[in-house]
Amino acid sequence: MIQIFNVGAERMLGYAASEVMNTITPADISDPQELIARAEALSAELGTPITPGFEALVFKASRGIEDIYELTYIRKDGTRLPAVVSVTALRDAQDSIIGYLLIGTDNTARKEAEEALLKAGALQSAIFNSANFSSIATDAKGVIQIFNVGAERMLGYTAAEVMNKITPADFSDPQELIVRAEALSAELATSITPGFEALVFKASRGIEDIYELTKIRKDGTRFPALVSVTALRDPQGAIIGYLLIGTDNTARKLVEAEREKSDLRLRDQQFYTRSLIESNIDALMTIDPAGIITDVNRQTEALTGCTRDELIGAPFKDCFTDPARAEAGIKRVLAENSITDYELTARARDGKQTVVSYNATTFYDRSRTLKGVFAAARDVTERKRVEVELQQAKAAAESASRTKSDFLASMSHEIRTPMNAIMGIADLLAKTALTPEQDKFVQIFRRSGDNLLNLINDILDLSKVEASQLDLERTDFSLSDHLEKVMEMVAPRAQEKALTLVCEIAPGVSNDLVGDPTRLRQVLLNLLGNAIKFTQSGSVSLRVEPDEDGAVPTALRFTVTDTGIGIADDKLVRVFERFTQADSSTTRRFGGSGLGLTISRRLVELMGGRIWVESQVDEGSLFAFAVPFEVSVAAKSPVAAPVGAGPEAPLPALRILIAEDSPDNCTIALAYLEDTPYLVDVAETGVLACQMFKKGRYDLVLMDRQMPAMDGLTATRTIRAWEKANGRAPTPIIALTASALKGDRESCLAAGCTAYLTKPIKQEVLLQAIKDHSAVKTPTLPGTDALGAGPSRAAQRLADRTPAYLENCRLNVISMLAALDCGDFQAVTILGHNLRGSGGGFGFQMITDIGAGLEQAADVADSAVSRRWIGELSSYLDHLRAGGRPH
Q: pLDDT digits over 443-454, tens only?
């Protein structure tokens, strides 16, 4: 046990004397593994087993053997220190061991010194023997005394070839030695000889010297070297030689050369990029995420009237008349990464304002860190001006087209009146007793009258098509019945010329179709009429089959073939042009205006189809067109029995909800339904319609598409959701809209509507739709009209209400002008929409057309065009008040 623990031990080991005395042995603060190793070593050395622990520390001293050893002590805080320990046995007067004295010293410093010396020696050896460094030592005169492996490898000489024979100047570039000597001579104001003196002169004066020099290898090749020179001195400070350590500088030179090339390329790229930026026609700028401009091009300087230096560091938003919108634009780019066609008005220093369209995107550095926004602004002032002019020109063209249509309609009416008289008198004369010569004259009257009447009809149809005023119907029709009527109409002319007339429908063609049978008949009559007109003998045939194109599965191809005079190849491309025939002589020989094929082409294209011709002179022609049709729902159900075929029940008393915000349209619908057994409720808004539907049990809903608060499609979706939630079967909902654009029908059906009708709606169409789509379907009694009292009484009721309707239109004129004065375009849009839907129902197609124009102009906030339409409405109402005819 420890009996004495001096101050040095306390300081060295961190224990207080009281903590260890009579408590532990020195073995308790020694490294256990080292004690085991020491016990094993002593056991082997002395040939006796020695226990690891205190015995291993003092065994030699207990045998009178001097013992000094190294051991690792463990301090109280757990840290370790190397110690040198001297152990002596303490004996009494009888020479018996009464204890041991252990004197220890901290060996840390010596260990560190030993390691440093080892490292220094290793470093010195590594440097001197390194193959990467040329180490050359000379005597005071410069003769090489040491030439290491690195020098041999670098210069190509062996040590034996140079030691005690040459100086380092002998494999240095002579010209560089001369230049160095001159430079040092000038710098140090002393004459220095080119040669070895030039290499070591600074070092000989105690000046640190590192320089670049070209070395010449034994084989004559050259390389750049970086040389460090140190003077070697004896203890008295006298120079006894020089140490020159050199490194091959080739790699660094190459790196520097590449860096220079890279820098040059970078400068070229920067110049090229800047040139691109400056040559751009757009005003370009970069903005940091805080909205501060970081760079601009000259176009931006011209746009703002400020220099680049003035703009860099300025807020982006300050360059515009609406700073808040400009700032919002930057925030939007940062949030969405880009914006397109964002319009702002730039304000120059002199007050000039320019409308610009911005395209902007975020940009990042190589580490994908956001650096800011790159924005390009294009001056769109001229484009805006052109757009306004185009809108004005479009409005003027539309106005001119309407004027032309009005003129043609008026002239048609004025011409038809005397024409009817002429043709009527001609018909009456034909029935009287006439001489052959008189009969010949009357027949000329009749033929000329027919030709003139056909020409008037063709011109009117062409005018309507070109003015986009010709609307197609969508109605169910029987293809076979329709073709039968067409063939009946052309048969007399074919019989007069003894031509064979053939009509064939290919197998698989659906008979029940949905489309516009009137316009289909017009095209067929034109083509068949032409075929008969230009065929003197032989046959004219019509064939209907599925279209081979296959792009539209329900498209049908109608082919009219004749054995007539044919058309020359160079004339084929012109046969569909206005007032054009393949040969001008045909006009004199066969008659005609040259409008029939033009109208046919326009009608086919209007129906979504295509038309073409093939022909051989003197062999005949083939005119074909393909038009898409829908297959009627009736085609999937049994054919209904004819009227009066058996006992049938009267119309059921359906409860019908009309959702319609226009009082005029409500008037029309109620007039149509007044003589039916239907019970009708009216809701002025979509919200009210939903509320009424949920409270009452309705058999059918007539839903206007455009209403305030909630539109018809939203109301339909709401009703469908409520029905589903409450386990109710879907109630038929028929959409009513003044719009008939492409996709409207699909939108209505997608929202949950059962059917779709376009305003103005005819009474028979509405009644038939209610009958077809009502949940309760009961046939009528024999001999009765399934559609109620008939259109005549409804027409009379509408006629009775017409003065009130026209007065309401006058009030609408006042309301719309007031709305425009305060910029309320939404009110004008709604009123225009209502006029569009109601005018035709009361028999005023012009009011419907004006309403459509008003709705379109107000929807784009075009005040000038809106006022022009309101002016036309006011003039038309004045025309009606003065007793003018509706048109």
A: 776 666 665 666
